[in-house]
Every structure is written in C-alpha cells, then in structure tokens.
Amino acid sequence: MIETTVSLTVNKEDIDVIKEVIIQHQIQAPVVIVEYEFNYHIYFTDQYEYWELESNISRKFEGFKFSEDLSNGKEEIKLQLHRYQCPLSTDGWGRPIEDPINQTKYLIKKEKESIIKFNPKIEALFEDEQYFYHVNIVPGINKETNEEGFLVIDEFNNIHNNDSKQQKTFLKNELFKNPVEAFSRALSSINQIAEIDFEEYKKMKKRKKRKKSN
Q: What pLDDT does residue 155 have?
C-alpha cells in the first residue's frame, strides 16, 4: 500500500483559511495541527496525494503562487507544503514503487513583471552601409474570444540611408500577450527580411561594379 504524508507549515495569521481548505477536502485521515511560537504545522497520511490542495490554497491568496524554486532567497513565503512517500513502500502487487515522492513547494508572492523598453528602430549594417527597419506594435483584441493583447502591424518600413522607403508585409493575425513578446517575434521577421535585402544589396553592388568597368 502506498501512503503519502502531506505536511504544511503555515503562518499563524493564515491558519483559519488553511483549515477551511482542508475541511472542504474531507480528508479521510486524522489531520494533526501543532501550534508553535510563530507558525502551525499540519500533517496527515493517506493513500491519496491531494494534488488539488495547491490550486485551492492559491485561490485563497491573491498575488501568491506555488513554486519549488527559491533561487533568489528574497521570496516572501506564505506557506510550505511537503509530500513524502517512504522509499520502502510497495504497490498493490508488493513491488517497490518507482520514484517515491519527496517534494517541497512554497507559496510565495508573485514577482511584478518588469516592463522592458526597446527602440522600435532597428539598425542593420550591410558592410559599411546602414539599413533601418521599424517595428510598429499596437494594442489589439481577438474579436472571437475578446482576448486583449498586442499586434505587429503588417506595415514594415525599410529606410536605406534615410532617402528611400519600402512598404513590406510584416505580421498579421497574430496576437501577443505583451509588447516584449511582439517585439521578439518582430526581430525574428527582421532577420528574414534583412537577409533578403542583403542579397539584393549584393546584386546592386555587383551591377555598380560592372557599370564602372564598362
């Protein structure tokens, strides 16, 4: 029989909320709650892992999420959840279980997404000559789902030495979650367009050389 021990370390101010979540789960095992000076320790052992605990707890704490990673060491920890299965446990056929669970997750405050600014004017060097491309990003909406996001307008200016303009089809019918994703996708298209322009640049250079030789 495979049994999983689930334990939670909870801040004192959050104990009532967590108890409410546990009661809603109707756990079919004794749930032990131990009070310490600064927190509570809750644990129980059952044949069921209760994976849905994370999502139900997260809903109670807006602005927090579960993570196994505490890489920067500065996260605000609201709760710790640990699952453990004994490595000597066996399944219904008496066979040792593979990859017994030994996992710790932390309910931490979500980081605010930083907005990265960028210059929409992109420069490309064709040997000693400058080519400039411009990215146009605007807010957009998917009319079928009402999902909001950002679009890269299907108008693309390639300005060579500031004395000529070319209209190019760029991107269309593609909605991005934020300007950074749209800009990243635009750079991918710029690479393709710049390669085409560079081939044309080399052809023009050869034609000029032939004219001079004649």
A: 60
Q: Give one DSSP letter per residue of 120-184, joined into a string.
A: SEEEEEETTEEEEEE--EEEEEETTTTEEEEEE-S-EEEEETTS---EE----S--BSSHHHHHH
Phi and psi angles of residue 118, each rounded to the nearest 5 degrees, phi first: -150, 160
Q: Which of 53, 59, 9 is nearest to 34 (CA)?
A: 9
Neighbouring C-beta atoms of residue 127, cutoff 10 Å: 8
Q: Give 97's DSSP letter.
A: P
As a whole number of angstroms, the distance between CA 64 and CA 84 comes to 23
| Segment 2-51, tens digit of pLDDT | 889 999 999 999 999 999 999 999 999 999 999 999 999 999 999 888 99
The tens digit of pLDDT for each residue in 100-155 reads 889 999 999 887 766 678 888 889 999 888 888 888 888 888 777 778 888 887 56
DSSP letter assigned to residue 118: -
Whole-angstrom Cα distance, residue 167 to residue 153? 12
pTM for the full predicted model: 0.52
The secondary structure of 21-87 as a DSSP string is HHHHHT-SS--EEEE-SSEEEEEEEESS--TTHHHHHHHHSTTEEEES---SS---EEEEEEEE--T
Token pair belonging to 100: 């017994």
